[in-house]
Amino acid sequence: MGEVYRARDVKLNRDVAIKVLPAAYSADADRLRRFEQEAQAAGALNHPNVLAVHDVGIHDGAPYVVSELLEGETFRDILNQGPLAQRKAINYATLIAHGLAAAHEKGIIHRDLKPENIFITKDDRVKILDFGLAKLITPGGNNVVQTDVATLKAQTSAGTVMGTVGYMSPEQVRGQPVEQRSHIFSFGAVLYEALSGRRAFYSDSAVESLNAILKEEPPDLNEANTKINPQLEKIVRRCLEKKPERRFHSAHDLSFALEALTISPESSLKTETLVASTATLNRSGFVRNSRLPWIVAGVLSLLTLGMAWVYFTRQPKAETRAVKLLILPPAKTFLMAGQPPLISPDGKILAFVAMDVSGNGLLYVRPLDSLEARAIEGSDGVAFPFWSPDSRSLGFFAKGKLKRVEVSGGQPTTLANAPNPRGGAWNRDGVIIYCPIPPSPLLRISASGGESTPINSNNIPGAVRWLPSFLPDGRHYLYIARMAGTEREVRVGSLDSDDSKSLVRAANSHAVYAHPGYLLYRRESTLVAHRFDVTKLELEGDPIPIAEDVGFDATSYQGYFSASDDGVVVHHSGSAGLTQLTWSDRTGKQLGVIDEPADQGDLELSPDDSRLAFRRVDNRTGSISIWLIDLARAVPSRFTFGKTTDFSPIWSPDGRRIVFSTLRDGPPNLYQKLSSSAGNDEPFAKSPEPMLSFDWSRDGRYIIYGVVDPKTSWDLWTLPVDDTSKPVQFLQTNFDERGAKFSPNGRWVAYESNESGTNEVCVRPFPATPGKWQVSTSGGQQPRWRSDGKELFYLSADHKLMSVEVNTEGSTFEHRTPTALFGTRVGGIDTPGAYYDVTADGQRFILNSLVAEATYTPITVVLDWTADLKR
Question: With 60 as the cut, is the pLDDT of residue 616 above it?
């Protein structure tokens, strides 16, 4: 299927293997599809007996998979030397069964299990390789409803034979559907060969071998090896049953049967050792007691009887396993990006934020014993919801306010201002702590209302503190802190002092406490559970992976997961945030797709419309970088590098430079770089307050940017390019003003403001003089000018692309009534940033459209999540 190279990972200082599909084969749709399936299947597994996959990508049109590098030999190399000793064969077989069981739990069927795809390392570890023919299926079972691996449509046509002759199951030979027990048949063929030194089904031609699989039985194992344990032969025969229902029902059952065989050989060895030791003692004259032989005989008899009883009466204990459910949002809605699902503390109600096709986001609650979700009245514009400890109320943020609402019904109550919130938490004493705006310290307020006060002094570590969550005592809380540079860490603080301590460095998400004593947090895209001593406030041991492909919000670092007090964990992949860059004309007709779906935004066309700058999220590392696309070739390339957070790019009028916001020095400051990518990133302007770049005037003299002030929220400032040390305030009110754009002639600034209670597009003169015109009529964001200054575009509250004819040449700004051009599916309309752009002539639009297929990914609910930890 591909070529494998040995390579060096210079970042992690390790050797890896890179499997590349040759460019000559990349046009082969079937080969490419199987290669992608290999990566998806192997990447979903995290087990010591399965090859670990580190990365997947495409280079120069050729897909590749980066995996751990193994040193040793294939099982085929070992079998070519002859049959294995029984104990060695059982040991290898047990480890293979463990790997298969892990695959089955993820709903993965290998479909090509054979000695060539089993690897034995130099230190005698077993690894299953090559999931190139894998098929993801939905596992059955009474206690598992679903898994966290997406089910793929079968990529094989009905009747197509997939696998390797000699190790295929009868159902594979017939081209019938393949499931877990097909694995077990192939496993039996491999184990038969390991014990006998010959293949179970082998003839001179492939047709005869396939016919033997369907109709013949392999010779008895004891014909080739008289020392084979009869119980082991029974296990092999049961694996090779022609009918699936007669085989072991699962790899777990198979591994248990194999493990049971290890009792007898080990005990026999102990018995032989005891007898030999007794004989030695007698011959040496150290023991003279004539009763010793009778004592030894009695002990041996008891041991034999005990082992026999264990062997013949031991039955598999009923395993307690976590139950997984999948929950979709209501019909005609999809999960909103950036907002995780939340399970109530009592584990009975799921809360989540969903958006309808008009772009209206609401808070929903769904009891787990119900089939329907109910929208919370008055929750429009909801963000960062959190539960009360009694599971009766929800706190949330909307339209610049902190609110609470009873789950049973009624209108929300406003508690405090929170212009740019970053999460809240609620303890059993009725105290809510929250972050109203990133530069602000955490505040506390009574759940019944009142004055907000800082929890701690500014001496507590962390330049920015957000996403709090309480520990069980209700006095200590977890939070994300931004430390020096771009480093983030999970820390624990206290309501009663300024003391705090670091728990998770280089944090990839926030953390929550989960009973009975774990912290849950995200490592790359894996959700892990880490033992936590709530008394010492210390982590213990190593983190344990519990779920793969768990998403997060790249702006707030809120992971898409939560936990209840009674063993329920919920998580979501976060693929609802995936968007695709597309071209559209003025009627909304799609003219083409620019790139693959990703988590991206902040679109900014170059002055000549030849290139697009935008920010893109790496969901594995959590970094956010600026990327460029040459639109003529539709080829994306990374513009800024490192584990940084870079966003909001703007072009100089001549297209030679790009200025962008970055967190690499703490609060967002402005950096610049040549658009040719030559040279290094250089500081452009710094401020103690966060700076978000919005636009560069056409004459090249000014940059307009946003500043987040804890007292006045979003304000607008301008920066003379020739002296960035002298910023000038453009507009400061008690409301949000952001998304500013200079008119082409530089005389006006269009921006969005929430002064009326909802975001509207307004225009003011530049430089700042009295005068203000509201252009939008029922909500508007993200204004854009046509290059001749005669038309202004914006997005309406219901995601329509709006057009307004304007006159910017007179002493007074003039505009007509807005008209709707077409509806969109752009993402991120309620957050700062640009999610569309328009060409200079106003005839074509680049849209950052939500991927419809990704928006309907379900929420995973895991009941009794610690059961899988115990297993």
Answer: yes
